[in-house]
Prior knowledge:
It is a single chain. By secondary structure, this protein is of the alpha/beta class. The chain has two domains: 13-126 and 386-495, Aspartate Aminotransferase, domain 1 (Alpha-Beta Complex), CATH 3.90.1150.10; 151-367, Type I PLP-dependent aspartate aminotransferase-like (Major domain) (Aspartate Aminotransferase, domain 2). 41% of the residues lie in helices and 12% in strands. The chain has helices at 7-19, 30-41, 50-63, 65-75, 129-141, 151-163, 176-191, 243-254, 269-272, 280-291, 310-315, 342-345, 369-385, 387-408, 439-459, 478-495, and strands at 96-100, 103-106, 111-114, 169-173, 195-199, 235-238, 259-264, 294-298, 321-324, 336-340, 414-418, 421-425, 462-463, 469-471. The longest helix has 22 residues, at 387-408.
Amino acid sequence: xxxxxxxxxxxxxxxxxxxxxxxxxxxxxxxxxxxxxxxxxxxxxxxxxxxxxxxxxxxxxxxxxxxxxxxxxxxxxxxxxxxxxxxxxxxxxxxxxxxxxxxxxxxxxxxxxxxxxxxxxxxxxxxxxxxxxxxxxxxxxxxxxxxxxxxxxxxxxxxxxxxxxxxxxxxxxxxxxxxxxxxxxxxxxxxxxxxxxxxxxxxxxxxxxxxxxxxxxxxxxxxxxxxxxxxxxxxxxxxxxxxxxxxxxxxxxxxxxxxxxxxxxxxxxxxxxxxxxxxxxxxxxxxxxxxxxxxxxxxxxxxxxxxxxxxxxxxxxxxxxxxxxxxxxxxxxxxxxxxxxxxxxxxxxxxxxxxxxxxxxxxxxxxxxxxxxxxxxxxxxxxxxxxxxxxxxxxxxxxxxxxxxxxxxxxxxxxxxxxxxxxxxxxxxxxxxxxxxxxxxxxxxxxxxxxxxxxxxxxxxxxxxxxxxxxxxxxxxxxxxxxxxxxxxxxxxxxxxxxxxxx
Length: 503
C-alpha cells in the first residue's frame, strides 16, 4: 500500500484554510421560509392530476420491466422488498446498476440525475475515479478487512482532526447510527449523568434510545414499535428552535440526576427540514455549559458537505462530540464515527474489558482498511478540488431555478437551500402539526402526494430523497442542473394545470 508523497502534509497545510471556508452563500430567511411552509400546510394539496399520474405510471410499466421483476423477486425474500428506506419508490424500487458523477443508470438502461447522493456523502459525485483507483489498489494487496491496525486508520483520523479541530480523537465505526450510540454512551460515562435531550423531528439513527420524535416534532414514541418503554425513559424531546423549552427540560432533569447530552442536527432536524436559526447552536452551547451537559453535533450529513470543517466551522461553535456518517468513507461501506476532545474521548481507550468509567464500544469492521482508505482519499480529493463549494454553487443554481418555476406556476410549494442541501416541499406533510385538529385527515393524503411527486420526478429522470430533498455534488455542472430544471418544469407545470386546484 502506497500513499502519494507528501499527501498528508499537503492536506494539513490546506486544512485550516479550507475548514473555515464558508460554502453557504447565504442562510435562508427562516421567518420567510416558515411563513411559506405555514401557507403550504393550510392550502389544499396541489397534487398532480390523475391523467399525469397515469402517464407516469405507464412510463414505469413500459420502461422499467427489469426493475419491476427484481422488485417482485425481492419482495419474496426481503421485508417490503427493500433493505433500506432510501430505496422505497412508487410504484416499485428501481434497480440501479451503474453510478458515475451526477448520474445513475437502472438495469433497463434509463439514466437519472442523482440527487440522492447515496444519502448525502458523495460530494465528489458517484464513483469518483481517483478514489476508486486507490480503493482498488488496496483491495489487490491488503483486502477489505484484517481486524488489525492499518496505516490508513491513522491517516484518516489525523486528516479529520486537521479539518475539524474539535476532534482531537476520532473513533471509526460502522455507521452514523453507531456513532450516535457511541456518543450517548461516552457522554453518560464522562458526565455520570443519564438523561438525553434531542430536538423534535430530528433523525439520529435507529437505535432504541433515539427512535423518539422522528420526522414530525411532538410524535414522541409513535414510531417506537418493538422498543420497550424503559429504553426511552431517559430520552426527551423539545420543539425545534425552542430555547425556552430546552432550558426548562434541562432544569427539570437536574432534579433527576442531570443531562448527559443534548444532541442536535446543527442546521435543523432532518437536514434542515425544520430550519435552525443562525444563532441557535451558540445558544444551545451556552445552555449546555450552564447545565453541565455535553453538546453533541450530529454531522452525518453536514460534515465536509458544508465545508471541510462542517457545520461547526460555519457556525463557529465547538461541540463536545461530533457524530460522523458515510462521509468519512466518501460513500464507501461501513463508515461512521465519533470524534471529540481528548478528555471526553478518553473513556473509549482500548482494552479487552470495560471497567470503571471506560465505555465499551466495538465492531469488527470498524476502521477497516477499505473504508479508511476510501475516506482518506475522498477527503483529500474534496479538499484539492474544492468540492463542497462547487456542490454548493450547484445547490444555489438548483434552488433559484426551482423558485422561479414555483413562482411562474403560482404554486404554494416551498424551496430553499443550505449550500448543497436543497429542500423542495410540495405536500407539506413534514410540517404538519399534531396540534392541528385536521392533522389526522391531512396526514394520509399529503403522505400519498409525497410518493406521487417522487414517482413523477423519477419518471422524468431524477432520483430524489422522498421527493422533498436533493443533494448536489461537484459533478452537478450548470448543464446538469439546467437539464434537471427542465425536467422539474414539466412536473410542476402538470401540477399547475387548470382544474387541478389552481386559481
